[in-house]
Amino acid sequence: MRNARRRARELATQALYQWLVSGAAPSEIDAHIRGTQGFDKADRAHFDALLYGVVREAESLDAAIGPCLDRPVTELSPVERAVLMVGTYELRHHVDIPYRVVINEGVELAKTFGGTDGYKYVNGVLDKLAAKIRPDEAQRRGGPAKT
């Protein structure tokens, strides 16, 4: 069973995909998403934070993601871009969520909504971003340095 926060990420990813593809107003997309089946199972506060936070910070999120890519951010599929924006936003603003969880959730979103191997790309990009955005946490992941 999916938890409420995961459901919020799924719905935010779908909303952001719509925003990236159509350019519709976030409030219009929000109203549509809230009417979908299963919205009642989502963490509404997390959904709101992701949707409106990502839209508000889209330019700076793209700027953070860009150096970790092998192509311009505008050449990403809209699904990969939405997933990476959600992950980057969570890495920046939701430090209560361990970075490994953020990466894992991004991978799961890419598996659910993206192309066949898109999750591998998302995993690599979010791993690089985690090292930049949360260097102390990412450094601890490997344990003490070996001598």
TrEMBL record:
Q: Which UniProt keywords apply?
A: RNA-binding, Transcription, Transcription antitermination, Transcription regulation
Span-the-membrane segments of this chain are none
Q: Where is the NusB/RsmB/TIM44 domain?
A: 6-130
Q: Quote the Pfam families the UniProt record gives.
A: NusB
Q: Which SUPFAM superfamilies match?
A: NusB-like
Coiled-coil annotated residue ranges, if any: none
Q: Which PANTHER family match?
A: ANTITERMINATION NUSB DOMAIN-CONTAINING PROTEIN (PTHR11078:SF3), N UTILIZATION SUBSTANCE PROTEIN B-RELATED (PTHR11078)
Q: Sum up the protein's function in the record's words.
A: Involved in transcription antitermination. Required for transcription of ribosomal RNA (rRNA) genes. Binds specifically to the boxA antiterminator sequence of the ribosomal RNA (rrn) operons.
| Family per similarity comment | Belongs to the NusB family.
Question: What's the name of the protein?
Answer: Transcription antitermination protein NusB
